[in-house]
Amino acid sequence: MPVSPPPAHHDHATDDGTTIALDLRALPAPEPMMRALEAADALAPGQTLELLTPLLPTPLLDLLSGRRLHVRAEMLPAGGARVRIHRPDDDGPTGA
Amino acid sequence: MARLALDQAPPASLPRQFLLSAPLWGVLAGVLLLVDGDVALRTRWQPATLALVHVFTLGVFGNVMFGSVLQFLPAAAGVRVRGGVRLGRLLHAVFNLGVLLLVAGLHEGWRGALRGGAVLLPLAFATLAGMTMPGLCVAAGQRLLRAGIGAAIGFGVLTALLGALLALALVDGTTLSMAALVDVHASWGVLGWIVLLLASVARIVMPMFQGTAAMPERAQTLWLASVLLMLPAAAWWRWARDDGRWLLATVAVHVALFAGAALWLQWRSPRVRRAPLLWSWRGGLIALALAAVLLTGGARGAVLAATLGLGIALPLLLAGMALEIVPFIGWIDLHRRCGRGLQLPGVQRLLPDSDKLGVLLAQWPLLLLPAAALWPSPWLARAAGVALACAWLGTWSALRGVHRRAEAFVAALPQHP
Protein backbone atom coordinates (compact mmCIF):
# COMPACT_ATOMS: atom_id res chain seq x y z
CA MET A 1 0.00 0.00 0.00
CA PRO A 2 1.44 3.42 -0.89
CA VAL A 3 2.48 5.52 2.07
CA SER A 4 2.24 9.30 2.07
CA PRO A 5 5.62 11.06 2.02
CA PRO A 6 6.87 12.61 5.24
CA PRO A 7 6.07 16.31 5.54
CA ALA A 8 8.76 18.84 4.66
CA HIS A 9 10.29 20.54 7.66
CA HIS A 10 9.06 24.17 7.64
CA ASP A 11 10.90 26.78 9.63
CA HIS A 12 9.84 30.41 9.33
CA ALA A 13 12.94 31.62 11.07
CA THR A 14 13.67 35.29 10.50
CA ASP A 15 12.79 38.26 12.70
CA ASP A 16 11.07 40.21 9.94
CA GLY A 17 9.28 37.18 8.39
CA THR A 18 10.82 37.68 4.96
CA THR A 19 12.73 34.43 4.85
CA ILE A 20 11.03 31.04 4.62
CA ALA A 21 13.13 27.96 5.23
CA LEU A 22 12.27 24.49 3.90
CA ASP A 23 14.23 21.32 4.53
CA LEU A 24 13.31 18.95 1.69
CA ARG A 25 16.09 16.42 2.18
CA ALA A 26 13.95 13.65 3.66
CA LEU A 27 11.34 13.68 0.89
CA PRO A 28 11.27 11.05 -1.86
CA ALA A 29 11.83 12.22 -5.44
CA PRO A 30 10.27 14.08 -7.13
CA GLU A 31 8.60 15.73 -4.10
CA PRO A 32 11.53 18.10 -3.28
CA MET A 33 11.42 19.56 -6.78
CA MET A 34 7.63 19.93 -6.83
CA ARG A 35 7.43 21.50 -3.37
CA ALA A 36 10.35 23.83 -4.03
CA LEU A 37 8.79 25.14 -7.22
CA GLU A 38 5.41 25.57 -5.52
CA ALA A 39 7.02 27.53 -2.68
CA ALA A 40 9.07 29.66 -5.09
CA ASP A 41 5.97 30.55 -7.10
CA ALA A 42 4.16 31.56 -3.89
CA LEU A 43 6.91 33.99 -2.79
CA ALA A 44 5.70 37.54 -2.21
CA PRO A 45 7.84 40.46 -3.45
CA GLY A 46 10.78 40.97 -1.12
CA GLN A 47 10.53 37.46 0.35
CA THR A 48 13.32 34.89 0.32
CA LEU A 49 13.06 31.12 0.29
CA GLU A 50 15.91 29.06 1.68
CA LEU A 51 15.85 25.39 0.67
CA LEU A 52 17.88 22.41 1.77
CA THR A 53 17.79 19.76 -0.95
CA PRO A 54 19.27 16.24 -1.18
CA LEU A 55 21.26 17.09 -4.34
CA LEU A 56 22.13 20.19 -6.33
CA PRO A 57 18.68 20.68 -7.95
CA THR A 58 19.85 21.55 -11.45
CA PRO A 59 16.42 21.12 -13.14
CA LEU A 60 14.87 23.41 -10.48
CA LEU A 61 17.52 26.07 -11.11
CA ASP A 62 16.82 25.74 -14.81
CA LEU A 63 13.08 26.36 -14.31
CA LEU A 64 13.64 29.22 -11.84
CA SER A 65 15.95 30.99 -14.28
CA GLY A 66 12.90 31.86 -16.41
CA ARG A 67 10.96 33.33 -13.49
CA ARG A 68 12.76 36.63 -12.73
CA LEU A 69 13.97 35.43 -9.34
CA HIS A 70 17.40 35.81 -7.79
CA VAL A 71 18.75 32.31 -7.20
CA ARG A 72 21.94 31.17 -5.51
CA ALA A 73 22.89 27.56 -4.92
CA GLU A 74 25.77 26.02 -3.02
CA MET A 75 26.83 22.47 -2.30
CA LEU A 76 27.05 21.59 1.40
CA PRO A 77 30.15 19.81 2.74
CA ALA A 78 28.02 17.09 4.35
CA GLY A 79 26.13 16.42 1.09
CA GLY A 80 23.05 18.05 -0.36
CA ALA A 81 22.69 21.67 -1.33
CA ARG A 82 21.39 25.00 -0.01
CA VAL A 83 19.36 27.10 -2.45
CA ARG A 84 18.36 30.72 -1.73
CA ILE A 85 15.57 32.14 -3.88
CA HIS A 86 14.64 35.80 -3.58
CA ARG A 87 11.79 37.58 -5.31
CA PRO A 88 12.68 41.23 -5.98
CA ASP A 89 10.30 43.91 -4.72
CA ASP A 90 9.07 44.84 -8.19
CA ASP A 91 7.65 41.40 -9.10
CA GLY A 92 4.23 39.94 -8.23
CA PRO A 93 3.66 36.44 -6.83
CA THR A 94 1.49 35.27 -9.70
CA GLY A 95 2.72 37.21 -12.64
CA ALA A 96 4.18 35.33 -15.58
CA MET B 1 28.75 26.60 -11.36
CA ALA B 2 25.19 25.33 -11.62
CA ARG B 3 24.34 27.83 -14.35
CA LEU B 4 27.37 26.78 -16.38
CA ALA B 5 26.18 23.17 -16.26
CA LEU B 6 22.69 24.16 -17.40
CA ASP B 7 23.83 26.22 -20.33
CA GLN B 8 25.70 23.24 -21.72
CA ALA B 9 23.21 20.52 -20.90
CA PRO B 10 21.32 18.78 -23.71
CA PRO B 11 17.58 19.55 -23.65
CA ALA B 12 15.15 17.23 -21.83
CA SER B 13 13.83 15.89 -25.13
CA LEU B 14 17.16 14.14 -25.80
CA PRO B 15 17.17 11.69 -22.84
CA ARG B 16 13.49 11.08 -23.57
CA GLN B 17 14.30 10.17 -27.17
CA PHE B 18 16.70 7.45 -25.97
CA LEU B 19 14.34 6.23 -23.25
CA LEU B 20 11.40 5.92 -25.65
CA SER B 21 13.50 4.01 -28.20
CA ALA B 22 14.34 1.23 -25.73
CA PRO B 23 10.90 -0.45 -25.54
CA LEU B 24 10.70 -0.62 -29.33
CA TRP B 25 13.89 -2.70 -29.29
CA GLY B 26 12.24 -4.88 -26.65
CA VAL B 27 9.32 -5.47 -29.02
CA LEU B 28 11.84 -6.42 -31.74
CA ALA B 29 13.43 -8.91 -29.31
CA GLY B 30 10.03 -10.55 -28.92
CA VAL B 31 9.50 -10.65 -32.69
CA LEU B 32 12.95 -12.23 -33.21
CA LEU B 33 12.20 -14.92 -30.64
CA LEU B 34 8.83 -15.52 -32.26
CA VAL B 35 10.52 -15.97 -35.65
CA ASP B 36 13.59 -17.96 -34.53
CA GLY B 37 11.96 -20.06 -31.80
CA ASP B 38 14.07 -22.25 -29.54
CA VAL B 39 17.12 -21.97 -31.84
CA ALA B 40 17.82 -18.64 -30.15
CA LEU B 41 17.87 -20.20 -26.67
CA ARG B 42 19.97 -23.37 -27.08
CA THR B 43 23.62 -22.20 -27.21
CA ARG B 44 25.38 -18.84 -27.08
CA TRP B 45 26.98 -19.28 -30.51
CA GLN B 46 23.89 -19.37 -32.74
CA PRO B 47 23.52 -16.29 -35.02
CA ALA B 48 19.93 -15.92 -33.75
CA THR B 49 21.20 -15.95 -30.13
CA LEU B 50 23.91 -13.38 -30.82
CA ALA B 51 21.39 -11.11 -32.53
CA LEU B 52 18.86 -11.47 -29.68
CA VAL B 53 21.50 -10.77 -27.00
CA HIS B 54 22.58 -7.56 -28.75
CA VAL B 55 19.00 -6.40 -29.20
CA PHE B 56 18.77 -6.53 -25.40
CA THR B 57 22.22 -5.28 -24.40
CA LEU B 58 22.45 -2.47 -26.95
CA GLY B 59 18.94 -1.74 -28.21
CA VAL B 60 17.12 -1.94 -24.87
CA PHE B 61 19.75 -1.39 -22.17
CA GLY B 62 22.01 0.85 -24.27
CA ASN B 63 19.21 3.28 -25.06
CA VAL B 64 18.01 3.40 -21.44
CA MET B 65 21.56 3.88 -20.17
CA PHE B 66 22.56 6.55 -22.70
CA GLY B 67 19.33 8.43 -21.95
CA SER B 68 19.69 8.02 -18.19
CA VAL B 69 23.31 9.19 -18.19
CA LEU B 70 22.42 12.29 -20.22
CA GLN B 71 19.54 13.07 -17.85
CA PHE B 72 21.22 12.07 -14.59
CA LEU B 73 24.60 13.76 -14.89
CA PRO B 74 23.40 17.38 -15.09
CA ALA B 75 20.27 16.81 -12.97
CA ALA B 76 21.68 14.82 -10.06
CA ALA B 77 25.46 15.01 -10.22
CA GLY B 78 25.96 18.64 -11.31
CA VAL B 79 28.08 17.43 -14.22
CA ARG B 80 28.27 19.51 -17.35
CA VAL B 81 27.39 17.49 -20.48
CA ARG B 82 28.97 18.81 -23.65
CA GLY B 83 27.67 18.76 -27.17
CA GLY B 84 24.18 20.23 -27.09
CA VAL B 85 21.18 19.27 -29.18
CA ARG B 86 22.74 18.53 -32.56
CA LEU B 87 25.42 16.19 -31.28
CA GLY B 88 22.91 14.50 -28.99
CA ARG B 89 20.47 13.80 -31.82
CA LEU B 90 23.33 12.62 -34.01
CA LEU B 91 24.44 10.31 -31.19
CA HIS B 92 20.94 8.82 -30.99
CA ALA B 93 20.86 8.23 -34.76
CA VAL B 94 24.39 6.80 -34.97
CA PHE B 95 23.89 4.51 -31.99
CA ASN B 96 20.54 3.10 -33.10
CA LEU B 97 21.65 2.69 -36.71
CA GLY B 98 24.75 0.90 -35.44
CA VAL B 99 22.63 -1.48 -33.33
CA LEU B 100 20.32 -2.16 -36.28
CA LEU B 101 23.26 -2.95 -38.59
CA LEU B 102 24.97 -5.16 -36.02
CA VAL B 103 21.80 -7.12 -35.23
CA ALA B 104 20.98 -7.56 -38.93
CA GLY B 105 24.59 -8.57 -39.64
CA LEU B 106 24.68 -11.12 -36.82
CA HIS B 107 21.27 -12.57 -37.66
CA GLU B 108 21.64 -12.74 -41.43
CA GLY B 109 25.43 -12.93 -41.76
CA TRP B 110 25.51 -9.74 -43.85
CA ARG B 111 29.13 -8.59 -43.98
CA GLY B 112 28.39 -4.99 -44.93
CA ALA B 113 26.01 -4.63 -42.00
CA LEU B 114 28.57 -6.12 -39.60
CA ARG B 115 31.22 -3.67 -40.85
CA GLY B 116 28.78 -0.78 -40.45
CA GLY B 117 27.93 -1.80 -36.88
CA ALA B 118 31.63 -2.26 -36.08
CA VAL B 119 32.30 1.35 -37.07
CA LEU B 120 29.19 3.11 -35.74
CA LEU B 121 28.91 1.53 -32.28
CA PRO B 122 32.44 2.35 -30.99
CA LEU B 123 31.90 5.81 -32.48
CA ALA B 124 28.68 6.19 -30.49
CA PHE B 125 30.29 5.07 -27.22
CA ALA B 126 33.31 7.32 -27.84
CA THR B 127 30.93 10.24 -28.50
CA LEU B 128 29.10 9.58 -25.22
CA ALA B 129 32.48 9.52 -23.46
CA GLY B 130 33.48 12.79 -25.18
CA MET B 131 30.22 14.43 -24.07
CA THR B 132 30.47 13.32 -20.45
CA MET B 133 34.08 12.60 -19.42
CA PRO B 134 35.39 16.21 -19.33
CA GLY B 135 32.50 17.24 -17.06
CA LEU B 136 32.90 14.13 -14.90
CA CYS B 137 36.57 14.99 -14.35
CA VAL B 138 36.11 18.61 -13.31
CA ALA B 139 32.76 18.60 -11.43
CA ALA B 140 32.75 19.27 -7.69
CA GLY B 141 31.65 16.73 -5.07
CA GLN B 142 30.11 13.26 -5.59
CA ARG B 143 33.57 11.75 -6.22
CA LEU B 144 32.46 8.15 -5.78
CA LEU B 145 29.49 8.61 -8.10
CA ARG B 146 31.61 10.30 -10.75
CA ALA B 147 34.32 7.65 -10.47
CA GLY B 148 31.75 4.86 -10.90
CA ILE B 149 29.98 6.46 -13.87
CA GLY B 150 33.29 7.41 -15.51
CA ALA B 151 34.63 3.86 -15.11
CA ALA B 152 31.38 2.40 -16.49
CA ILE B 153 31.54 4.62 -19.57
CA GLY B 154 35.21 3.64 -19.99
CA PHE B 155 34.26 -0.05 -19.89
CA GLY B 156 31.45 0.72 -22.35
CA VAL B 157 33.96 2.15 -24.83
CA LEU B 158 36.31 -0.84 -24.37
CA THR B 159 33.43 -3.30 -24.75
CA ALA B 160 32.35 -1.61 -27.98
CA LEU B 161 35.91 -1.71 -29.34
CA LEU B 162 36.24 -5.41 -28.51
CA GLY B 163 32.84 -6.04 -30.08
CA ALA B 164 33.94 -4.24 -33.24
CA LEU B 165 37.04 -6.40 -33.38
CA LEU B 166 34.89 -9.53 -33.05
CA ALA B 167 32.43 -8.35 -35.72
CA LEU B 168 35.28 -7.64 -38.14
CA ALA B 169 36.78 -11.04 -37.33
CA LEU B 170 33.44 -12.61 -38.28
CA VAL B 171 33.50 -10.70 -41.58
CA ASP B 172 37.06 -11.59 -42.51
CA GLY B 173 37.23 -15.07 -40.97
CA THR B 174 40.33 -14.01 -39.00
CA THR B 175 41.70 -16.71 -36.70
CA LEU B 176 41.42 -14.76 -33.46
CA SER B 177 40.97 -16.52 -30.15
CA MET B 178 37.25 -15.90 -30.49
CA ALA B 179 36.02 -17.67 -27.37
CA ALA B 180 38.40 -15.78 -25.08
CA LEU B 181 37.60 -12.42 -26.68
CA VAL B 182 33.86 -13.09 -26.54
CA ASP B 183 34.15 -13.91 -22.82
CA VAL B 184 36.07 -10.70 -22.12
CA HIS B 185 33.67 -8.64 -24.28
CA ALA B 186 30.61 -10.12 -22.53
CA SER B 187 31.97 -9.78 -18.99
CA TRP B 188 33.19 -6.21 -19.47
CA GLY B 189 29.86 -5.30 -21.05
CA VAL B 190 27.67 -6.86 -18.36
CA LEU B 191 29.66 -6.09 -15.23
CA GLY B 192 31.91 -3.20 -16.32
CA TRP B 193 29.35 -1.19 -18.28
CA ILE B 194 25.83 -2.20 -17.23
CA VAL B 195 26.03 -3.34 -13.59
CA LEU B 196 28.75 -0.84 -12.64
CA LEU B 197 26.64 2.04 -13.97
CA LEU B 198 23.54 0.67 -12.23
CA ALA B 199 25.35 0.25 -8.91
CA SER B 200 26.84 3.75 -9.08
CA VAL B 201 23.53 5.39 -9.84
CA ALA B 202 21.64 3.14 -7.38
CA ARG B 203 23.56 4.63 -4.44
CA ILE B 204 21.86 7.97 -5.23
CA VAL B 205 18.51 6.94 -6.67
CA MET B 206 17.58 4.20 -4.18
CA PRO B 207 17.41 6.63 -1.23
CA MET B 208 15.81 9.29 -3.45
CA PHE B 209 13.09 7.19 -5.06
CA GLN B 210 12.69 4.16 -2.79
CA GLY B 211 13.41 5.65 0.63
CA THR B 212 16.23 3.20 1.45
CA ALA B 213 19.45 4.08 3.23
CA ALA B 214 22.41 4.82 0.98
CA MET B 215 25.04 2.14 0.47
CA PRO B 216 27.87 2.94 2.94
CA GLU B 217 30.64 4.83 1.13
CA ARG B 218 33.34 2.43 2.30
CA ALA B 219 31.47 -0.66 1.01
CA GLN B 220 30.76 0.95 -2.37
CA THR B 221 34.38 2.09 -2.69
CA LEU B 222 35.65 -1.43 -1.97
CA TRP B 223 33.22 -2.96 -4.48
CA LEU B 224 34.21 -0.43 -7.16
CA ALA B 225 37.93 -0.92 -6.52
CA SER B 226 37.49 -4.67 -6.66
CA VAL B 227 35.66 -4.46 -10.02
CA LEU B 228 38.32 -2.15 -11.46
CA LEU B 229 41.09 -4.47 -10.30
CA MET B 230 39.54 -7.86 -10.98
CA LEU B 231 37.91 -7.32 -14.38
CA PRO B 232 41.14 -6.49 -16.28
CA ALA B 233 43.19 -9.06 -14.28
CA ALA B 234 40.68 -11.88 -14.86
CA ALA B 235 40.40 -10.89 -18.54
CA TRP B 236 44.17 -11.16 -18.90
CA TRP B 237 44.07 -14.58 -17.19
CA ARG B 238 41.31 -15.72 -19.58
CA TRP B 239 43.28 -14.51 -22.59
CA ALA B 240 46.83 -15.55 -21.62
CA ARG B 241 46.15 -18.76 -19.65
CA ASP B 242 43.01 -19.89 -21.50
CA ASP B 243 41.28 -20.22 -18.13
CA GLY B 244 37.87 -18.58 -17.79
CA ARG B 245 37.10 -19.49 -14.20
CA TRP B 246 38.40 -16.22 -12.70
CA LEU B 247 36.49 -14.11 -15.19
CA LEU B 248 33.27 -16.04 -14.56
CA ALA B 249 33.77 -15.82 -10.79
CA THR B 250 34.53 -12.09 -11.00
CA VAL B 251 31.27 -11.39 -12.81
CA ALA B 252 29.18 -13.75 -10.66
CA VAL B 253 30.55 -12.52 -7.31
CA HIS B 254 30.34 -8.78 -8.06
CA VAL B 255 26.86 -9.03 -9.59
CA ALA B 256 25.66 -11.11 -6.63
CA LEU B 257 27.21 -8.63 -4.17
CA PHE B 258 25.44 -5.69 -5.84
CA ALA B 259 22.09 -7.49 -5.98
CA GLY B 260 22.40 -8.82 -2.42
CA ALA B 261 23.42 -5.45 -0.96
CA ALA B 262 20.60 -3.59 -2.74
CA LEU B 263 18.04 -6.17 -1.55
CA TRP B 264 19.41 -5.88 1.98
CA LEU B 265 19.00 -2.09 1.85
CA GLN B 266 15.42 -2.48 0.64
CA TRP B 267 14.51 -4.96 3.37
CA ARG B 268 16.12 -3.20 6.32
CA SER B 269 14.90 0.35 5.59
CA PRO B 270 12.00 1.29 7.88
CA ARG B 271 10.76 4.11 5.65
CA VAL B 272 10.88 2.30 2.35
CA ARG B 273 8.44 3.73 -0.22
CA ARG B 274 6.08 0.93 -1.27
CA ALA B 275 5.56 1.94 -4.87
CA PRO B 276 5.89 0.09 -8.20
CA LEU B 277 9.57 1.04 -8.47
CA LEU B 278 10.31 -0.84 -5.24
CA TRP B 279 8.61 -4.01 -6.51
CA SER B 280 10.22 -3.65 -9.90
CA TRP B 281 13.68 -3.39 -8.33
CA ARG B 282 13.00 -6.15 -5.80
CA GLY B 283 11.98 -8.55 -8.58
CA GLY B 284 14.89 -7.44 -10.76
CA LEU B 285 17.45 -7.80 -7.97
CA ILE B 286 16.22 -11.29 -6.98
CA ALA B 287 16.39 -12.41 -10.63
CA LEU B 288 19.84 -10.83 -10.98
CA ALA B 289 21.16 -12.64 -7.89
CA LEU B 290 19.75 -15.91 -9.22
CA ALA B 291 21.34 -15.29 -12.63
CA ALA B 292 24.72 -14.69 -10.95
CA VAL B 293 24.46 -18.07 -9.20
CA LEU B 294 23.36 -19.85 -12.39
CA LEU B 295 26.30 -18.33 -14.30
CA THR B 296 28.59 -20.78 -12.56
CA GLY B 297 26.52 -23.77 -13.73
CA GLY B 298 28.27 -24.65 -17.00
CA ALA B 299 27.07 -23.99 -20.56
CA ARG B 300 23.37 -24.65 -19.88
CA GLY B 301 23.56 -22.61 -16.70
CA ALA B 302 25.06 -19.72 -18.68
CA VAL B 303 22.18 -19.72 -21.19
CA LEU B 304 19.67 -19.86 -18.35
CA ALA B 305 21.52 -17.05 -16.53
CA ALA B 306 21.45 -14.96 -19.71
CA THR B 307 17.70 -15.39 -20.23
CA LEU B 308 17.06 -14.52 -16.59
CA GLY B 309 19.59 -11.68 -16.38
CA LEU B 310 19.12 -10.07 -19.79
CA GLY B 311 15.48 -10.96 -20.36
CA ILE B 312 14.01 -10.25 -16.92
CA ALA B 313 16.37 -8.86 -14.24
CA LEU B 314 18.08 -5.94 -16.00
CA PRO B 315 14.89 -4.90 -17.86
CA LEU B 316 13.01 -4.72 -14.53
CA LEU B 317 15.74 -2.51 -13.05
CA LEU B 318 16.22 -0.27 -16.08
CA ALA B 319 12.59 0.01 -17.21
CA GLY B 320 11.61 0.69 -13.58
CA MET B 321 13.88 3.74 -13.56
CA ALA B 322 12.72 4.84 -17.03
CA LEU B 323 9.14 4.89 -15.69
CA GLU B 324 10.30 7.43 -13.07
CA ILE B 325 12.56 9.52 -15.30
CA VAL B 326 10.22 10.00 -18.29
CA PRO B 327 7.30 11.58 -16.33
CA PHE B 328 9.78 13.77 -14.46
CA ILE B 329 11.19 14.99 -17.79
CA GLY B 330 7.62 15.52 -19.05
CA TRP B 331 6.75 17.55 -15.95
CA ILE B 332 9.81 19.79 -16.35
CA ASP B 333 8.97 20.24 -20.00
CA LEU B 334 5.40 21.25 -19.10
CA HIS B 335 6.69 23.85 -16.64
CA ARG B 336 9.02 25.24 -19.28
CA ARG B 337 6.19 25.55 -21.77
CA CYS B 338 3.50 26.91 -19.45
CA GLY B 339 5.49 29.05 -17.01
CA ARG B 340 4.09 29.96 -13.61
CA GLY B 341 0.64 31.12 -12.65
CA LEU B 342 -0.99 27.85 -13.79
CA GLN B 343 -1.92 24.79 -11.74
CA LEU B 344 0.04 22.13 -13.62
CA PRO B 345 -0.52 18.38 -13.19
CA GLY B 346 1.99 16.73 -10.84
CA VAL B 347 4.55 14.13 -11.92
CA GLN B 348 2.31 11.34 -10.61
CA ARG B 349 -0.59 12.47 -12.80
CA LEU B 350 1.54 12.32 -15.93
CA LEU B 351 2.26 8.63 -15.26
CA PRO B 352 0.04 7.25 -12.46
CA ASP B 353 1.22 4.38 -10.26
CA SER B 354 -1.61 2.23 -11.67
CA ASP B 355 0.00 2.41 -15.14
CA LYS B 356 3.41 1.55 -13.68
CA LEU B 357 1.86 -1.38 -11.85
CA GLY B 358 0.28 -2.54 -15.11
CA VAL B 359 3.71 -2.49 -16.78
CA LEU B 360 5.13 -4.46 -13.88
CA LEU B 361 2.36 -7.10 -13.99
CA ALA B 362 2.93 -7.51 -17.73
CA GLN B 363 6.44 -8.76 -16.91
CA TRP B 364 5.15 -11.92 -15.20
CA PRO B 365 4.67 -13.90 -18.45
CA LEU B 366 8.37 -13.30 -19.12
CA LEU B 367 9.02 -16.26 -16.82
CA LEU B 368 8.36 -18.19 -20.03
CA LEU B 369 11.88 -17.10 -21.09
CA PRO B 370 13.84 -19.17 -18.54
CA ALA B 371 11.26 -21.93 -18.95
CA ALA B 372 11.97 -22.01 -22.69
CA ALA B 373 15.72 -22.13 -21.96
CA LEU B 374 15.23 -24.99 -19.48
CA TRP B 375 12.91 -27.06 -21.72
CA PRO B 376 13.68 -25.91 -25.27
CA SER B 377 10.75 -26.32 -27.62
CA PRO B 378 9.57 -24.17 -30.54
CA TRP B 379 6.13 -23.40 -29.11
CA LEU B 380 7.44 -22.44 -25.65
CA ALA B 381 10.10 -20.15 -27.15
CA ARG B 382 7.50 -18.55 -29.43
CA ALA B 383 5.12 -18.07 -26.51
CA ALA B 384 8.00 -16.34 -24.67
CA GLY B 385 8.50 -14.17 -27.76
CA VAL B 386 4.86 -13.09 -27.70
CA ALA B 387 5.11 -12.35 -23.95
CA LEU B 388 8.25 -10.31 -24.55
CA ALA B 389 6.71 -8.25 -27.36
CA CYS B 390 3.54 -7.60 -25.34
CA ALA B 391 5.46 -6.60 -22.19
CA TRP B 392 7.61 -4.07 -24.05
CA LEU B 393 4.65 -2.75 -26.02
CA GLY B 394 3.00 -2.07 -22.66
CA THR B 395 6.10 -0.24 -21.42
CA TRP B 396 6.24 1.87 -24.59
CA SER B 397 2.54 2.70 -24.31
CA ALA B 398 2.94 3.76 -20.65
CA LEU B 399 5.92 5.99 -21.48
CA ARG B 400 4.08 7.53 -24.44
CA GLY B 401 1.16 8.19 -22.09
CA VAL B 402 3.23 10.91 -20.41
CA HIS B 403 3.42 12.87 -23.66
CA ARG B 404 -0.27 12.20 -24.37
CA ARG B 405 -1.38 13.54 -20.99
CA ALA B 406 0.89 16.59 -21.17
CA GLU B 407 -0.42 17.44 -24.65
CA ALA B 408 -4.03 16.97 -23.50
CA PHE B 409 -3.39 19.40 -20.62
CA VAL B 410 -1.85 22.01 -22.93
CA ALA B 411 -4.66 21.60 -25.46
CA ALA B 412 -7.25 22.21 -22.71
CA LEU B 413 -5.71 25.59 -21.80
CA PRO B 414 -7.67 28.66 -22.90
CA GLN B 415 -4.63 29.94 -24.81
CA HIS B 416 -1.90 27.56 -25.90
CA PRO B 417 1.54 28.77 -24.73
Automatic annotation (TrEMBL), chain A:
SUPFAM superfamilies reported in the protein's UniProt record: SirA-like
InterPro entries, sorted: DUF2249 (IPR018720), TusA-like_sf (IPR036868)
Protein name per UniProt: DUF2249 domain-containing protein
Domain DUF2249: 22-85
Organism: Rhodanobacter sp. FW102-FHT14D07
Lineage start: Bacteria, Pseudomonadati, Pseudomonadota, Gammaproteobacteria, Lysobacterales
